[in-house]
Each structure stands twice: as C-alpha cells, then as structure tokens.
Design goal:
heterodimer, A: 100 residues, mainly alpha, Helix Hairpins, B: mainly alpha
C-alpha cells in the first residue's frame, strides 16, 4: 500500500514544474499547457484523498476540474488564435497593447 | 504489493520527467507530446488509486480532446521564427526562487500536517463499483454543480466560437 503522502509529494512536484512553466516561458501556448499540468496535479491530490478517506467525492470534484480545464483550454486557445491573427506573435512579453 | 510500488514509481517518474521536459523543450510540438506523456502517466496513477472511471475520462478527455485541440492550434500558429527566439523571459531567476519558496512552504505544511491527518495508512475501503458510485454521487449529492458545469461548458463553447471568429 502506497502511503497517501507519496501521492501528495508527486502532486507537489508536478505543481511546482507547472508554476515554473507559467512564470518563465515566453510562449503563451506553453503557458496554457503548464496550467493544464497544474490542474492535473490538483486532480492527483483529489483522487489520492478520495482513496485515503474511502469516499468517491474527490473523484467527482476531479471530474469537475477536468470539465473546467476543457472550458479554459477552449477559450484560451480561441484568444490565442484571435491575438495571433492580429499581431502575428504568441510571445507573452510582446502582448503589451495596454501598456504605454 | 511490490508490483503496486513498482507501478507507482514508474508512473511517478514518467510523469515528473515528462513534465520537466515539457517545460524546457524549445519546440512547442515536442512540449505537447511530453505533456501527453505526463497526462497518460497520471492516468496510470489514477488507475493505481482505484479510480477506473477517472482513468478513462483522463485518457478520452485530456489526451483525446484537450491535447488534440492544443496541437491543432499549434499547427495553426506555429512559426519557424519562434524556434530561434529566446524561450525564457527576463524574470526567470526571480520566478525560480519564488517557486522554490512556494514548494518549500507547501512541503513544510505537508510535513507538519502528516501526523494529524494520518497520511501514512489510507482507509482503503473504496466502493467496488467505481463508475456506479460516481454516477450516484453526481446525480444525487452533486446535481447542482453538475448542472452549473453544463452552463460553464455552454459559455466556453460560445466564447471559443466568438473568439476564433474571423471578424467580430
């Protein structure tokens, strides 16, 4: 039997890698993919606690988070497509139209 | 039991290794493929946690749905110029230090809480029929969140169509 804390540490590692990706990459598509990685790490946590307490509720919440990730990916990629059509770039630090 | 541990460490190392490669690769398509590998390893972790329904949902929805959408957009947006540009922004060192601080904090919280939560021995009395139990939970206790999720998906669908339209 794997202890629950092993899953929590795996989840923490994936979460940290995702945060590094969000904060350091310039490409917005990779930033979005890192956000998917973060949501995935949270799902591991929820499912691990679902087994830890012997209840299925955590898995239901994981399903809701997957729904949320799908919605976020669809809207985010739509925004990226619209932005690319206007400015011909997908780099986060060149998206400075609101700056002056 | 030993097989269980071998499977856990295999999937965990696969997930973490692919995640690191995903964040550091220069080519976006390679990043997407490594993210798919991470998601599949996570699906294996779910199966090992006796969450069979989530295992299938993870593969069908994440790998089959969301990642195909990502790769589709990468193919629409992909620029050869982007391969030769600097991949990391100027705040990378500050960001690395802050992330390390965050990870240490969470790890410390985990370490403090592990005695109180009894994290070493899980209950291990999951319902045998996983999909049936999830269906019961969704359609009885979590009916309202389920309906709200459908509204969220409708909003996201309309939003994606409007965003990706050629002329608004």
């Amino acid at each position: 039997m794997i202890p629950t804390e092993a899953y929590l540490i795996l989840s923490l590692a994936l979460f940290t890698i995702g945060v590094v990706g969000v904060l350091t990459r310039r490409n917005v598509i990779i930033v979005l993919m890192s956000i998917e990685l973060i949501l995935n790490a949270v799902n591991i946590n929820l499912v691990a606690f679902s087994r830890h307490f012997g209840s299925v509720d955590g898995q239901v919440f994981a399903i809701f988070i997957i729904t949320d990730a799908a919605a976020e990916a669809a809207v985010g990629l739509g925004i990226i497509l619209a932005f690319f059509r206007n400015r011909e770039t997908v780099l986060a630090d060149e998206m400075d139209m609101l700056k002056w | 039991m030993i097989l269980n541990q071998i499977l856990f460490y295999f999937f965990a190392l696969l997930a973490i290794g692919s995640a690191i490669l995903m964040v550091t690769r220069r080519n976006i398509v390679h990043s997407a493929v490594f993210l798919i590998s991470t998601l599949l390893a996570t699906a294996g972790i779910f199966l090992q946690l006796q969450a069979e329904f989530l295992f299938v949902v993870q593969i069908i929805l994440y790998v089959g749905g969301i990642m195909v959408l990502f790769i589709f957009v990468i193919m629409l947006v992909n620029l050869d110029v982007a391969l030769r540009q600097i991949q990391f922004n100027r705040q990378k060192y500050v960001a690395g230090v802050l992330t390390l601080v965050l990870a240490t904090q969470v790890f410390f919280a985990l370490w403090v809480a592990r005695a109180g939560l009894n994290l070493t021995n899980p209950a291990d009395k999951m319902p045998v029929r996983n999909t049936e139990a999830i269906g019961d939970a969704i359609f009885q206790r979590y009916m309202l969140p389920f309906e709200i999720a459908s509204v969220l998906l409708l909003v996201a669908m309309i939003g994606a169509v409007v965003m990706a339209k050629r002329r608004v």
